[in-house]
Amino acid sequence: MKYKFLSLCFLLIFITSSSISLVFYKKMKENSIATDLKFGISQANLVVNLLSHKENVEIPVYKLAQFFSKADFRITFLNELGKPFADSQNNSIILEDVYNPFILEEKNLNYPYHKIVNSFNEKNIKTLMIFTEVFEFNHKKIRVVLSKELIFLNELQKNTLYAILLGMIISGAISGFLSIIFVNKIIAPITILTNAVRNIALGNFENEVIISSKDEIKKLGDTFNLMSKKIKQLLTTIEIKAENLQSIIDSLQASIFVVNSFGEIILVNKRAIEEFNLN
Fold this sequence. Notes:
Layout: H1 2-52, H2 61-67, E1 74-78, E2 84-87, E3 113-118, E4 126-131, E5 135-137, E6 140-149, H3 151-201, H4 216-250, E7 257-259, E8 265-268, H5 270-275
Antiparallel strand pairs: 1-2, 1-6, 3-4, 4-6, 5-6, 7-8
Helix pairs in contact: 1-3, 3-4
């Protein structure tokens, strides 16, 4: 029973702590993505408005990409086919096999459009990508993509796992503490009562049950002590009456045998023992 209670406490506390950690992770993830998305869309609109009004100015795109190198988002310029040809952080992107993330297979999208994909560099990290609509710059149709690695989510996921592991440790500690209380308050008094019942079955009525708690178990212990006293008094009364009966039949001069319904002799007097030589 003790181990079942310990397992139940551990399971309940672990499920509660894990659920809280997962709900917290989900909320933080949603809030983080929403904040980055809102900020990214505002930057995307700003870039589009800035570049789409430069109709009479020829600006090399690679220099423009360098201009955005210190921005919070990585800015990639796509040609009308959707292939990258300039990037704010690494212009060698045009030589890398990173074409697929920039392909938009969906049709009739609302721009700025966003999606979350695996990072270009690390698969364990997600990247938020925001696509602008196609506009004309330097007499060419281009599209700008803003991307940002969601490193915070990776850290948050690790912290959530740590929180769950910590919850397991705390669950074990609390379960152990509760099991000790459970043993002292419930199992220990029940063990005392069990031993007392065993003593009564062996004919020992001298041991009194002492329970220090102030609940129903103490009332049960008091009732048990009262029952034990009454049984002892009843047995004492029966023994006295049996001794009186034996004295009466021993005083008679005739041989007396008392038998039960099975024909077994259960009582004889001294005269019968002497006359029939009974041992």
